[in-house]
Structures are given as structure tokens and as C-alpha cells.
Design brief:
globular, mainly beta, 29% strand, eight-stranded antiparallel sheet, 3-methyladenine DNA Glycosylase, Chain A
Length: 202
């Protein structure tokens, strides 16, 4: 796995499905990479949630604001926001320029840089990248990464699969009060690092 991880191919924007639900499924098994001066952080994407146009649970529901404008960029850009006074979370913009929709990254399987992910963290190794807030913390993603082109040549980018995804499950999204019934969460079935209750991981 190490050898494969070190030669990850960058995804081109043309490879990303131009529809939010399709992109949420497509990203399972792909790789998120953050190249830092101290080393590379990378992980396989295990779990995503789609947030659609007209979706009352989406940050774009009431239109574009200075805070959410990255959601309205062409598909393949990072939308990073701060919640609960302690966590950053990251979405991938998922539609055309000016259309607000995105895919929340909820869990990763670490591939490279585990020691750097753990640096200064009291989190158990098994929980480092399980859940969207921990994922962003481990991958050193914060406000500076908001709006980054994940298909460009910068340090934060999306890579092709280094290992095929197992069967993909789907469920309702987690932790919502609005439109909580919608089946818009996707995950690699049976993987121990997928977040949420057991009934939503198998």
C-alpha cells in the first residue's frame, strides 16, 4: 500500500461526475492528499454526504454569502467551514459555477503521514479520521484551504484510487434536523473507520 500511495495520480476535473449524488458515490475509494513541508498526508475516502440544490440542510440553501461562496465554484473545489466552535469540515463543490451544492467528506482511511496526523492530538489512532471534524484536523485542513482547487497543482488535491472500494452502502445523513430522511450518505460497507452508529455502517 505504501508504494501505491506514494504514486497517487491526481484526478482531472473532467473525471468528476457533474452531479452531486453521483460525485458523492464516485469519491468513495478516491484519495485526499495534503502535501506539507513536513511530509505528505493522504487517506482513502470512506464516507461522504451529498448536499443538493434546494436542500434545506445545505449551507447554500439561502443563496451565496461570503461564508459559503466556495460551494458555488465549479465542481472540484474545497469548501471549508468552522462549526461548533472547534471543528473545521470540508466539502467538495459538486456542480457548475454559480450552483451551490457539495459533498461532505466524513471519513478517511489513513495511507501516509499517520505520525503527522497524530502530532499533538489526544485522539485514539482509530478515530483520527473518523468523522468530518477529526478528518479535517488530521489532514491539517482549515480556513486557508477554503476555495482551493482540488484538481489543480496545489498541495491539497484529490487522487485516483490506490485500492478498489468495497461494496458501497447508502443511508440517511447523520446529525441533521432538516431533511434528515433523505438517503444521501454513501460509505464503504464494513470498513471499521466509517463513522456513525453500527446500523449505518454495515
Amino acid at each position: 500500500m505504501k508504494k501505491a500511495a506514494s504514486s497517487i495520480r491526481r484526478l482531472r476535473r473532467a473525471e468528476l461526475p457533474a452531479e452531486t449524488v453521483e460525485l458523492a458515490r464516485y469519491l468513495i475509494g478516491k484519495v485526499l492528499v495534503h502535501d506539507l513541508p513536513r511530509g505528505r498526508l493522504s487517506g482513502r475516502i470512506l464516507e461522504t454526504e451529498a448536499y443538493l440544490v434546494g436542500d434545506a440542510a445545505a449551507h447554500s440553501f439561502r443563496g451565496m454569502t461570503p461564508r459559503n461562496r466556495s460551494l458555488f465554484l465549479e465542481r472540484g473545489h474545497a469548501y471549508v467551514y468552522f462549526v461548533y466552535g472547534c471543528w473545521y469540515m470540508m466539502n467538495v463543490s459538486s456542480e457548475g459555477q454559480g450552483i451551490g451544492a457539495g459533498v461532505l467528506l466524513r471519513a478517511l482511511e489513513p495511507l501516509e503521514g499517520m505520525a503527522l496526523m497524530k502530532h499533538g492530538s489526544g485522539t485514539r489512532p482509530a478515530d483520527l479520521t473518523r468523522g468530518p471534524g477529526r478528518l479535517a484536523t488530521a489532514m491539517r485542513i482549515g480556513r486557508r484551504q477554503d476555495g482551493v482547487d482540488l484538481c489543480g497543482d496545489g498541495p491539497l488535491w484529490l487522487g485516483a484510487c490506490v485500492q478498489p472500494a468495497r461494496a458501497i452502502g447508502e443511508s440517511v445523513r447523520i446529525g441533521l434536523t432538516k431533511e434528515a430522511h433523505r438517503v444521501l450518505r454513501f460509505y464503504e460497507r464494513g470498513h471499521p473507520l466509517v463513522s456513525g452508529p453500527k446500523r449505518l455502517r454495515t
